[in-house]
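Late entry, evening session. Most of the bench is empty. Finally got around to the prediction I had been postponing all week. Sequence below, unchanged from the version circulated by S.P.
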Amino acid sequence: MADALKDRYGVEAELIKSGGGVFEVVKDDELIFSKKKAGRFPTNEEVFAKID
């Protein structure tokens, strides 16, 4: 995901280690995807659609 974000938007994603299987995508302090809520990882396209 970090590489896909860099390739598409030219930005460096900040990866923060966590426990318990948490995977969240946040843009400008807004949660745009939560693995905990969805029960799965997002596709790159899902994240891109929420960023664009």
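Two things to note before I forget:
DSSP finds three helices and two strands in the chain.
Strands lie at 24-27, 30-34.
Will write this up properly tomorrow.
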